[in-house]
Specification:
Blueprint (H helix, E strand, L loop, with lengths): L1 E2 L2 E2 L3 E4 L2 E8 L10 E4 L2 H9 L6 H18 L3 H12 L7 H14 L5 H40 L4 E5 L15 H9 L4 E6 L6 H13 L3 E4 L4 H6 L5 E4 L3 E3 L4 E4 L2 H11 L3 E4 L5 E2 L16 H4 E5 L4 E5 L12 E4 L6 E4 L2 E3 L3 H7 L5
Parallel strand pairs: 6-7, 6-9, 7-8, 9-12, 10-13, 12-17
Antiparallel strand pairs: 1-2, 3-4, 4-5, 10-11, 11-16, 14-15, 17-18
Bound molecules: 5-S-methyl-1-O-phosphono-5-thio-D-ribulose (MRU).
């Protein structure tokens, strides 16, 4: 998608020097655009754990490039296994990370020790990045008719879509998941307006989704996290579109904390609630959302807020200095509250039958 008017991706290797993996440091967006170069598995591990890169599909692809950087350091099996184990420790909820590492390790270790392992590691990471772009594009194509149909009913009035967190191209490689149908609808000339949940505590909505939409010229308004229910009661939301970090076999959806409350409000108001996700974010090995490990992060992310003071990013305390805080990063929306899952293979019901209908290989 466009960044300052030019097509951009969230991760790439430096042209002419693939040993340098470049990422956008998302911790400083939208105030600064900082490109960081990862040159070893340690820097890739830190980039994922400390959220320089974030979002389920991007975490998976960044880990794959991390395995490539590990292979550049050593192609010994024990070193590569230790690197994968370290990368697995970075974030527990997004299943893309585990899928990517399992696949990378398997592909790399098929080769004998030596340069063949490095080549396969790079090919695997590049292929995952390309597949992610393709999947996100397909999610957009399958989701577009939902917006088109609402648009037809609304005539010249904009379709109002509410989204939570950042399930945009910054969370993926390109297009995004929840944003992909939005981008394609905008391209098709459908009038749109997006309600952007700020998404405390890290404000991925206010900082990243708002930035992305602004870069594409899509009308949007940032709202405080608690506003969605009121907007739905007023008939000001036509569709809720969110992403997912891990969806279980029965269609339960783990996504950024606060998603569940939006799903409850949507169900109460008859507002369609769709989850857009690639198959890499589905965990067919889990039967229920209660089995998904929910990340708990540093309570200081809740106690402090971060913003731009006109020249630099500042952190300010939001609570009494001695008040403890708790920081659950994700919640689980039960399948019964989900209108449908938008995947690269089409839209299905959030149920085991629906998922297996599109992905029969998991039967
Ligand atoms: O903690 P993050 O920022 O890595 O959270 C992940 C997300 O961006 C969202 O939960 C998103 O909706 C799913 S990833 C497309």
């Amino acid at each position: 998608m466009l960044l300052h008017g030019k097509p951009h991706r969230s991760i790439w290797t430096e042209p002419g020097d693939p040993a340098r993996v470049c990422i956008i440091d998302q911790r400083v967006l939208p105030f600064e655009l900082a490109v960081e170069t990862l040159t070893n598995v340690e820097s890739a591990t830190r980039a994922i754990a400390d959220m320089h890169v974030r979002g389920a599909p991007l975490i998976g692809v960044a880990a794959a490039y991390g395995m490539y950087l590990a292979a550049l350091e050593s192609t010994r099996e024990d070193f590569l296994r230790a690197a994968a184990a370290r990368l697995k420790q970075t974030r527990p909820t997004a299943v893309d990370l585990f899928h990517a590492l399992t696949l990378c390790l398997k592909s790399i270790l098929k080769m004998p020790e030596g340069p063949g392992r490095v080549r396969v590691a790079l090919e695997t990471a590049d292929r995952m990045a390309e597949e992610s772009v393709q999947h996100c594009r397909q999610i957009g194509e399958h989701g577009l008719p939902l917006i088109e149909n609402i648009g037809k009913q609304k005539g010249s009035l904009p379709v109002n879509i509410l989204t939570h967190c950042n399930a945009g191209w910054l969370a993926c490689i390109d297009y995004g998941t929840a944003t992909s149908p939005i981008y394609l609808a905008h391209e098709a000339g459908i009038p749109l307006h997006v309600w952007v949940d700020e998404t405390r505590p890290r404000n991925q909505g206010a900082r990243l989704t708002a930035f992305e939409l602004g870069q594409q010229g899509i009308p949007h308004s940032v709202i405080a996290d608690n506003t969605g229910g009121h907007l739905m009661q007023q008939g000001l939301v036509d569709l809720v579109l969110v992403g997912s970090d891990r969806t279980t076999r029965n269609g339960d959806v783990a996504n950024k904390i606060g998603t569940y409350l939006k799903a409850l409000a949507a169900a109460d108001n008859g507002t369609p609630f769709y989850v857009a996700l690639p198959s890499t974010s589905i965990d067919p090995s889990l039967r229920h959302g209660r089995d998904i490990p929910i990340e708990q992060r540093d309570p200081d992310e809740v106690r402090y807020a971060e913003g731009w003071d006109g020249s630099k990013i500042q952190k300010v305390l939001m609570t009494p200095a001695d008040s403890p805080a708790v920081n659950y990063a994700f919640d689980v929306t039960p399948a019964r509250l989900v209108t449908g899952l938008i995947t690269e293979r089409g839209i299905c019901q959030a149920s085991e039958a629906g998922i297996l209908g599109l992905f029969p290989e998991w039967r």
